[in-house]
Amino acid sequence: xxxVAMAFDFALILLFVAVGRxxxxxxxxxxGIVSTLWPFGVGLIIGWIYLxxxxxxxxxxxxxxxxxxxxxxxxxFLRVISGQGIALSFVLVASLLLxxxxxGWRIIFNxxxx
Length: 114
Description:
By secondary structure, this protein is mainly α. The protein is built from 4 helices and no strands.
């Protein structure tokens, strides 16, 4: 189930990036998606490593909160140092949406599993 959780996490972050690029008319090209995705992808990988090292259940709602925090924090840091920049509104929207997505699917999955 760990691999299923990882696939959902990645798919939802990819969806977040694609919708964001589309809504801001940046285009949904492979290069554009990758350039926007990689900082959040690195944050996601760091989050997965954290979950693994702390022996947390990848399907737990709390794990989604940890991932959201790490994806946003690392993602924004990497965007800044790579020259992509951030705005307060972007940080707030990304924090809310990514955490909602990463926690939300876990809540739905766990309710359907019981």
